[in-house]
Design brief:
This protein has twelve helices and seven strands. By secondary structure, it is α/β, with parallel strands linked by helices. It has a seven-stranded mixed sheet with strand order 3-2-1-4-5-7-6, sandwiched between helices.
């Protein structure tokens, strides 16, 4: 079956009720066809979706067909083992550029307009780091940082330049052809191959999630796995519940959702999060430079022990006749 027919069938199955509360809902199932994942932007601000081709058999960075670099390999190791261009030489050459925070400079020069955002994402990162935000992370992450979904490693590189001990992971780091967002783009940091499972080896560090993928399960899995292993602090850079980062379960784990929209509105394509307990408590927020149409901020969350967090209620189990409770006493 062609990819086009899958897209058409998906559109036919979408319930109309979803469109009525689209600003309030973040669906949370992992796509069964990862090559159809889209680059999503605010409506009216650039492209809404970008279709990608089905995955090829080539490994990361154009290595031997069917072979992927082992999990945890660095850019230098991928260069030697899989014939990539010299990433380490590029990192040294770009170190000077980091001193001026070029993404922040670009944001200021364009006034944060949406026209420049797409190219800024592919070259740098989804979110714009300010000096105040970087200084705050440096101050509170005294034991180092582990970033999951680092992309080009732009945030990691800026933090490392400030002396923070950073370990960054991505399933397909730039310039891997397996990552349609950053394919062929030069990285800013030595991002290792790894996904949400990598947090288990770095629970002594602060977990950093910058614009975790919309409508996918891995951000919630990373937060849960980090919590189970004893992690204490999460820095989340993204939008609040109902935005374009994370899924419903992710926001419920961080106490950012009070209700289950799937049950409240009868939505069939959104997962039920009733009974999900928050395991992180918001300790602080900070404004960062925003692109037009975006609502991202920097959030700092602290650990909540099991049994002490907010549990998302089931709206269908609410007492329908509350006055009867007093009448029966």
């Amino acid at each position: 079956m062609r990819a086009d027919s899958w897209v058409d069938s998906d559109r036919a199955r979408r319930p109309s009720a979803r469109m009525a509360i689209q600003p309030l809902l973040v669906s949370g199932h992992r796509s069964r066809r990862p090559w159809l994942r889209s680059v999503r932007f605010r409506r009216g601000h650039g492209a809404v979706a970008e279709r990608t081709s089905p995955p090829s058999s080539a490994g990361l960075g154009g290595g031997r067909p069917g072979r992927r670099p082992p999990v945890g390999t660095s850019a230098a190791e991928r260069t030697v083992r899989h014939g990539q261009p010299s990433v380490t030489q590029s990192l040294r050459a770009r170190a000077e550029q980091l001193r001026s925070n070029p993404l922040l400079t670009l944001h200021g020069a364009t006034g944060g307009g949406s026209d420049a955002r797409a190219e800024a994402i592919r070259t740098y990162a989804f979110a714009v780091p300010s000096d105040a935000a970087l200084d705050l992370i440096q101050r509170i992450a005294s034991s180092g940082v582990v970033e999951i979904g680092a992309g080009t490693g732009y945030w990691a590189a800026l933090l490392a330049a400030r002396g923070v001990d950073v370990v960054a992971y991505d399933p397909a780091p730039a310039p891997s052809s397996d990552n349609h967002l950053f394919a062929g783009r030069q990285p800013w940091y030595d991002v290792r191959v790894g996904d949400e499972h990598a947090v288990a080896a770095h629970v002594d560090r602060t977990l950093l999630l910058v614009w975790p993928t919309f409508d996918e399960a891995w951000p919630a899995e990373a937060a849960e796995r980090y919590h189970r292993r004893g992690g204490r602090q999460v820095i989340y850079v993204g939008e609040p519940a109902g935005g374009l980062t994370g899924d419903a379960r992710f926001h419920a784990l961080f106490g950012m959702l009070e209700h289950c929209f799937a049950c409240a509105y009868g939505l069939l394509d959104s997962p039920c999060i009733c009974g999900t307990e928050s395991i992180w408590r918001q300790a602080r927020t900070m404004d960062i430079p925003q692109w037009e149409g975006c609502e991202d901020r920097l959030y700092i969350f602290e650990r909540v022990d099991p049994g002490l967090g907010h549990v998302v209620p089931n709206p269908l189990q609410r007492r329908r006749w509350p006055w009867r409770k007093g009448a029966l006493r």
